[in-house]
Amino acid sequence: DRRLVAYVVGRPGQAPVPGELREHLRARVPEYMVPSAFVELERLPLGPTGKVDLHALPEPDFSAGHDAAAPPPRDVLELRLAQVWEDLLGVHPVGPADDFFALGGHSLLATQLLARIERQFGLELPLSAVVQELTVERLASRLRAGVRPAYSPLVPIQPAGPGLPFFCVHPVGGHVLAYLALARALGPGRPFYGLQAPGLEGDERPLTSVEAMAACYEACVRGVQPAGPYHLGGWSFGGVVALEVARRLRRRGEEVALVALLDSYVPRASRRDPGDEQLQAEFARELRQVLGLPARDEPEAGLEQLLAEAREARALPPDADAEDIGRRFAVYAANVRAMLRHPLEPYPGRLTLIRAGAGAAEPEWAALALGGVDVRDVPGDHYSILRPPAVDALAAQLRAALEAARD
């Protein structure tokens, strides 16, 4: 099991704090480049030539910095789950009440966790289970029930709080775990629900039109909140689908107080199908950006090459296979084709456009929003606005838009 270890020499009088170092790096590099352990040294051991003597570096203690007094598991199921977490996260011990994401978990490790659970316990859980059951004890309770819930695109990322919910539609890739940092940055007072694309889990097939997505997600939204005012939004392609959900709700006579377009662009409708080869190349570029892998322009660098590189860089779980990548691609391709076939019509209300830098074009949205466009700019690029530290500015602008919608 290869892991990245950082050996740190602090300034005089300043002891390095592993937690602060980890958060500093997590805000600047992909997750797979964040070290699993930090080892403090007074000085680096040097060899005769003045280079660092790697053989003289001490072995890391992967349990250092964690609470060794964590309460023990209460039964065999909690013990087995804790062992899986310890193996994936490199943290020892893991207590029943420890939060998966607070210990360093992320969306890719969550996918690997679900694969381990299916192998060891014979039960397939949806990705939303890790978001909803963040601790060993809560996930153990879910497993004891022994029943996989009926599939739903609705992912309660942060279901508690006194405010009206914010419903956030998936981007073109289909996943909603990209919204975890945004939901947390918004704060505990705002319920936050993601709407994830069918086709990523189980036997569900991808939806092939924006209209079908909007109808599906409208039903999910009304299942949580039967009547308005509604707060909807989405990042990139998700903003386009959220707009159509809003349109359907308005036709029912419901009030839609906010449609937040998070760096969304007006799609260019086209009758020409891009073809699988072009879509695979675009999908690979998109996924490389999301995973933090270096860009490759070679046409032969297809999905198998991408899978191999992602495994080697630990950006995808080692047991990720061609079926996993194929499922992601099928959803991506269905969403791109749905977007290209969907001409947007004028919307009889106001839109809020939160742009990365000077990104998404205001005039194009202004031509469609009969109630005008509220434009808010945030620092960062299309991808970084969903990650720390830029996500704080995005959350602040979204929070302000939600407050304004309430007035």
Give me some keywords for this one.
407 residues, alpha/beta, GMP Synthetase, Chain A, domain 3, Non-ribosomal Peptide Synthetase Peptidyl Carrier Protein, Chain A, 9 strands, 39% helix, 12% strand
Report on the architecture of this protein.
- By secondary structure, this protein is an alpha/beta fold.
- The protein has 4 domains: 5-56, 2-Layer Sandwich (GMP Synthetase, Chain A, domain 3); 76-145, Orthogonal Bundle (Non-ribosomal Peptide Synthetase Peptidyl Carrier Protein, Chain A), CATH 1.10.1200.10; 154-269 and 342-406, 3-Layer(aba) Sandwich (Rossmann fold), CATH 3.40.50; 275-339.
- It is built from 13 helices and 9 strands.
- It has helices at residues 18-26, 76-89, 107-121, 128-132, 136-145, 180-186, 210-224, 237-251, 275-291, 303-312, 322-340, 362-366, 390-406, and strands spanning 5-9, 37-41, 154-158, 166-169, 192-195, 230-235, 256-262, 351-356, 373-378.
- The longest helix is centred in the last third of the chain and has 19 residues, at 322-340.
- Residues 64-68 have low confidence and may be disordered.
